[in-house]
Amino acid sequence: MSQTPLHDPSPDPISEGAHARARGRPRDACPYPANSEPRTAWLEGYDGVPFDRVPDPPHRGG
């Protein structure tokens, strides 16, 4: 019988960031070094928005 790991040994940083936010961890809890690709991905997951996406402008009622 083959054994399956209890969790993915190399988790996706985007998923990690999303899970951190869902668990109420602060944004500065990111475990990756500054200016690294994994940190950018972790923050994308935490914020729920791709890093290079420009935020939508505010809607002006009218």
Largest sheet: none
Structural class designation: mainly alpha
Radius of gyration: 16 Å
| Spans where pLDDT lies below 50 across 5 or more residues | none
Q: Report strand %.
A: under 5%
Looking at how many chains there are and whether they match, the oligomeric state comes to single chain
In short:
The protein is mainly alpha-helical and 62 residues long. Helices cover 34% and strands 0% of the residues. The chain has helices at residues 13-22, 37-47.
Task: Tell me about this structure.
The chain is globular. It has a domain at 13-47. By secondary structure, it is an all-alpha fold. The chain has helices spanning 13-22, 37-47. It is built from 2 helices and no strands. It is 34% helix and 0% strand.
Could you give the topology of this structure?
Elements: H1 13-22, H2 37-47
Which properties best describe this structure?
62 residues, mainly alpha, 2 helices, 34% helix
